Amino acid sequence: MNKIVLSFAVIMAMCFGACAQNKEKQNTDTKKILVAYFSATGTTAELARAVRDVTRGDLYEIVPEEAYTPADLDWNDSRSRSSLEMGDTLARPALKSPGADVSGYDVIFIGYPIWWNEAPRVVNTFIESVDLRGKTIVPFATSGGSGIDNSVSKLKAAYPDLQWKEGRLFNSPVREAIKSWASQY
What we know:
The protein has 6 helices and 6 strands. The chain is of the alpha/beta class.
């Protein structure tokens, strides 16, 4: 009789363990993901679509009220719009429409090109226009030569109450690299 009770207890413990693991996997699989991005030239947009495809999340484009022209993006011109915005830490370019409704999302990927070793100021406008408290924030960026570390450090310092994860820089959208990185969320 004791062997039967012991065997039953072992089987029940195994079932409860498997059920708990299955529930944990279900919770991970049912996370609602938003891929928000700003792209001035289309490079970051391409990357954001790849992240969305891998994560099966929703896509949201951060659109400034006034689109950036090639002259605005001329980093060699100290009077260009992007140079002036990046020179002013308080600059917050207006958004074309109000921030996204992020209330139903668990994980928010935020993508942007690196400008002056930072996220463009319009990304700050987006972050300040939505309630990201309690969300997992995963930055990703594109760049022709800069790393992502400084931009992420600046975002973490500006918004210390948010739950930031490590960022990832992509010099060009490489689907396999995106898949291995983004699928963990």
